[in-house]
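DM from R.C. (forwarded with permission)

"hey, sorry to bug you on a friday — could you get me a structure for this? deadline for the figure draft is monday and I only need the backbone to look sensible"
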Amino acid sequence: MFTQRADGLRLLTVHAHPDDESSKGAATLARYAEEGVDVLVATCTGGERGSVLNPALDRPEVLADIARIRREEMAAAREILGVRQRFLGFVDSGMPGPDEPLPEGCFAAQPVEAAAAPLVALIREFRPHVVITYDETGGYPHPDHVMTHRITVEAFEAAADPRRHPEAGEPWQAAKLYYHLALSRAWFQTLHDAMTDRGVPSDMGELLAGWPDTPPALATTTRIACAEKFAVRDAAMLAHATQVAPGVAFMAHPRDIEREVWPTEDYHLARSLVPAAGGAGGAGEVEDDLFVGLRAGAGAGAGAGVGAGVGAEVGAG
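My reply, with the result:
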């Protein structure tokens, strides 16, 4: 149990593995944390079946102790971002091939309602106003990412229903649900073009050449200006040393160019129980704040617990 801060807004972001919070939306988290928003990362699995992607650490003793190491990396990244974090306790599903079954007992093999139960309890404990996760594709087709989407949508609804999971605490209705639009084709194309125009070598061309030229499935409803936190994001990513190597892949492009041409992290508003600029029920304008509709009078709202009781305690410790 943790003690809820005395007042203010709360943001919960739900991710599949340690490192996902740093590669998707980390600058947003750091910005809001610095502003005084209470930010909590829920990590569904321990990343136990993840590969070691940094050649400098691809050693037998690291692989043998990967579960402990990835938890330590998560703790370091959390400190850098200035957020809180909770593991939900599921086992990484790995990335089975097309004809391979999921490992027995893994996260993605669980029934959705049962797997959502720990997240329902966490939502009722933390009482977030805003929840962020992946869309139904998972952002990419890793079974744990798809499952993270499924249990977050399930828990967003179930946490507000007193008839469901009555053992998990008092009902709480989060006001808004967002999906990440991180690492989109438009983002890669914009950076690739900007680098090419400036005579900077880009490794993104090969990736873009193989990317289907189809319109994005989800509209961008929300752009969070957070370029000043890109350095914090990068430090958090590098804290996941088994997953990220300095100067390679996402760490390769010049940050000054990124700040110039894409200074935001972007989201799709999937559900909203309060008036909002775009997305679910909005007028189509692009938001610049995840808490649109919540900052003025956060104690008001319809439904079980929407924005209510902002200052109450959830436990000691």
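R.C.: lifesaver. The chain has ten helices and seven strands.
me: no worries. Strands lie at 10-15, 38-45, 84-90, 130-133, 176-180, 222-225, 264-272.
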